Amino acid sequence: MRRVVLAILVVAACGSSGDTGDDDDVVLGGGGPYFPRGAFFDQEVSGVTPAANSAAIIAALRDAGGWGNGDTFQIDNSLEVLRVDGAAPDKRAFEPTDDFFDPDCDHVPMPVPAGGNLEGEPGYACDGDGDCHLLVWAPDEQRLYEMWRANLDGDTFYGGCLAVWDTSRVYGADGRGEQCTSADAAGFPIAPLLFTADEVAAGEIDHAIRFILPNDRIRRGYVRPATHGTNTSGAGDLPYYGVHFRLRADYPLESLPDEGARVVARALQKYGMYHADGGNIALTARSDQRTTAKWEGLLDTHDLADLAVEDFEVIDHGAPIELTLDCVRN
Question: Is 38 part of a structural domain of the chain?
Answer without folding.
Answer: no
